[in-house]
Specification:
By secondary structure, the protein is mainly alpha-helical. It contains five helices and two strands. The protein has a domain of 49 residues: Recoverin, domain 1.
Amino acid sequence: MMKPQSTIVIAIILLLMIFNQSQAKERNNDRPGPPPSFSTLDVNADNEIDFAEFSQHALPHGEHKTIFAHIDSDNSGVISEVEFTNHKPPAKKKP
């Protein structure tokens, strides 16, 4: 038979483990995944990504217009594979 103090210690340890696991899951959900490939975004396979195709992809902050305009460097209204490949995301701001 376990002593009451042992039961309390085990319960606290289990609660801490559960809390740490939930915190780790939240941190992992905040990390962006790898960027999609050109062919994944080019839904109709016409070798261009228009805004309708681009907006189907989920973005962390929903900034589709801003990001699309940044990648569409020649302002043609579509993203070519060259524009997509040459696009460099802006550097993260340091605190």
